[in-house]
Amino acid sequence: MMSVTTCRRCQGEGRLISKVCRVCRGSGTQPDRSKVSVEVPAGVSTGTRLRLSGMGESGGRAGVAGDLFVEIVVADDPRFRREGDHLFHEVTIGIAEATLGTRVGVPLIDGSETQVEIGPGTQPGTRLIIEGGGMTVLGRRARGDLVVEVVVEVPEKLSEEEEDLLRRWAELRGEKIDRPAST
What we know:
Helix content: 10-25%
Distance between the termini: 102 Å
CATH topology of the domain at 81-155: HSP40/DNAj peptide-binding domain
Shape: rod-shaped
CATH superfamily of the domain at 81-155: Urease metallochaperone UreE, N-terminal domain
Number of strands: 8
Structural class: alpha+beta
CATH class of the domain at 81-155: Mainly Beta
CATH architecture of the domain at 81-155: Sandwich
């Protein structure tokens, strides 16, 4: 029976080092930290891995340096919810605004703002789409959409005057209010 292994003393180099370096202990490498600049392409999402060839661990005396892998974690933006390349933004409006229509400012991903027309009779949950207002599609010039979701806020407390006006409005519309006026 015969076995072949790498020499423990020379590590397969074929020669021995007579005076071993205190820093590398004969390995030919020394630990070092360095900063690496990474260009992150537009449109990446959490979990994307970027490969930097030759920027990883040393390959030893005759070896080539390995690759460095950078895993991307995209921070959440409180203004948006991201689904793929599309962004979602909620806009809260009042009952009168939903009924009569209004214009609202909507933030864009680049930090600017655009005005969106909310038409008369807009119902809760209505979605308005701003084409190309979303994330850049990775590797392309195209962009996803920005979807504006309308939330209609119903007041929980009314002043006496507001309640009277609302009751008169309901009466004009033929709506039946079973609950007596609050005192």
